[in-house]
Specification:
Blueprint: E1 10-13, H1 17-25, E2 29-32, H2 43-51, H3 53-69, E3 72-79, H4 80-83, E4 91-94, H5 106-118, H6 125-132, E5 138-141, E6 160-166, E7 172-176, H7 192-216, E8 219-220, H8 221-230, H9 240-257, H10 261-272, H11 279-291, E9 302-308, E10 311-316, E11 324-327, E12 332-335, E13 348-349, H12 353-356, H13 371-374, H14 378-388, E14 392-401, E15 407-413, H15 415-421, E16 426-432, E17 440-447, H16 451-463
Parallel strand pairs: 1-2, 4-5
Antiparallel strand pairs: 3-6, 3-8, 6-7, 9-10, 9-13, 10-11, 12-17, 14-15, 16-17
Helix pairs in contact: 2-16, 5-6, 5-7, 7-9, 7-10, 8-9, 9-10, 15-16
Length: 464
């Protein structure tokens, strides 16, 4: 103590950032600690969760072990109404928590209108809009049917879907085929070229892929994702490596089983020209893995984060499928030429299931190149991942990050840690135009809103 003030002072600042800025101006060495007080929540809920902390910890060990042990395999393709649980001819599945037509955002409305025209239930956008508002169409979240969908997440009866099975636990997951970027159904576009592409996917690409997967038998998607992380993907907004690895797996079987040389070439060229093709497999991989933990009584593990462009909803392993919902936020984005934040719709899509499983924004340290698409710097990408270790239960035993000396990705969001550390899950995402019919206008990043986590924290306490 006697020598303390005879040495150069070094300051650790845990207050406002401005305190550290003042010290910088005075040339005093200082480090700012990124710390926040716990979130203000119902004190009774905190008492209940602390009283049951051992019980919750044990439940979480069971839940996260199921997630890490999952073995999701691609086992085939089929038409949605044939395989998706509870699917009906007059039903349209959508991303995020439940939402009515009246509250649907523009891109989701556009996707619904496109699906109704694709199904032959309407011949014009006007007819489709009238039918959607009539009450004759049933809307339901993809997540409630073992399904996930990017952006608007629209799935209608005749759409082809991937079929995944978790060999460790026996549960399945489903997802549509990826259309590519730009003016596509999932971003709310519904023009003739959108429907023409979807018809080609249904009539040419789907049968070709179905035969190829049948010939192969099954494809280990978890292994592909692990390799893709080593090759610069985070398998949410960067899927170049994942798509390439899938292409190498499928190409010989497509050539061997496709009678038409032209069709084989067209299918392979479509996959080759669509770096996001693997996204619609990385999503159900995450869904298949996390769903195995559902129903783990007392667990604070988040098993779904999903957005419908109006609301942001989450579900916990220990709260019986209940949705905890808050307002969806607008991402901090890089916009395509001619568009600004004024054109952007709030965050939308089930693709944040990747972050929920320790991929996407949680694995950005594996994918520094992603910042060219969503904004920021390579250092930011690393820091996003490091921050997510603070709110998760485990480090993934399969998904590893070379830059972090092959440390496993942060996996298993614990709602208690989100509240206690006042730190929110980080998501990277595409941005849709707020009006139906336009499509994608950019890509960016954001933190999940706090409100759903506060509600889930209280909801878990009520179950205990």
């Amino acid at each position: 103590m006697k020598d303390l003030f005879n040495k150069e002072l070094k300051v650790i600042n845990t207050g406002l950032q401005s305190f550290k800025d003042t010290l910088d101006d005075m040339n005093v060495k200082a480090v700012h600690v990124d710390w926040k007080p716990p979130v203000d929540v119902d004190p009774e809920a905190t008492k209940v969760l602390k009283k049951n902390s051992n019980k919750i910890d044990e439940a979480n060990k069971v839940a996260i072990s199921k997630v890490l042990a999952a073995r999701p395999m691609l086992i085939g393709l089929d038409i949605a109404i044939n395989v998706i649980p509870g699917m009906a001819d007059n039903m349209i599945l959508h991303s995020g928590p439940p939402v009515t037509w009246e509250r649907m955002c523009g891109p989701m409305r556009g996707g619904v209108m496109c699906a109704l025209m694709l199904e032959g239930k309407a011949s014009t956008p006007e007819e489709a809009e009238e039918l959607a508002a009539s009450g004759k169409i049933e809307f339901s979240p993809c997540h409630e049917h073992s399904t996930v969908g990017p952006m608007a997440g629209i799935v209608s009866a005749s759409m082809p879907v991937w079929i995944l099975e978790n060999e460790e636990h026996g549960n399945k997951a489903y997802c549509t085929l990826n259309e590519g970027l730009g003016k596509v159904l999932r971003y709310g576009a519904y023009g003739p070229e959108v429907i023409e592409r979807l018809k080609w996917m249904e009539e040419i690409m789907y049968p070709s892929l179905k035969r190829a997967v049948e010939k192969i038998g099954k494809i280990d998607l978890k292994n592909i994702i692990a390799q893709a992380l080593h090759m610069g993907d985070e398998v949410h907004n960067r899927n170049r490596a994942g798509t390439s690895l899938l292409y190498r797996t499928l190409a010989p079987a497509i050539v061997e089983t496709e009678d038409s040389k032209k069709n084989a070439a067209d299918v392979l060229n479509f996959i080759n020209g669509n770096d996001h093709f693997f996204l619609n497999l990385s999503m159900p991989v995450a869904k298949c893995s996390l769903d195995a933990a559902r129903g783990t009584k007392g667990s604070s593990l988040c098993v779904a984060m999903a957005r419908n462009g109006t609301d942001f909803g989450i579900q916990l392993a220990g709260t019986d499928g209940e949705w905890f919902v808050g307002e969806a936020l607008v991402p901090d984005a890089l916009y395509f030429a001619g568009y600004t934040i004024d054109d952007a719709n709030p965050d939308i899509g089930d693709s944040s299931i990747t972050e929920t499983a320790g991929l996407g924004g949680f694995a950005m340290a594996a994918s520094p190149a992603i910042v060219q698409f969503v904004g920021g710097t390579s250092k930011d990408a690393v820091n996003y991942t490091l921050q997510m270790y603070e709110i998760t239960m485990a480090e993934n035993n399969m998904y590893q990050i070379p830059y972090l000396n092959f440390r496993g990705t942060p996996t298993g969001i614990d709602v208690r840690k989100v509240i206690e550390k006042n730190a929110l899950p980080f998501i990277n995402t595409g941005v849709a135009h707020k009006n139906p019919g336009v499509g994608q206008v950019g890509a960016g990043v954001l933190n999940a809103p706090m409100d759903p986590f506060k509600k889930a924290y209280v909801g878990l306490a009520k179950t205990l």
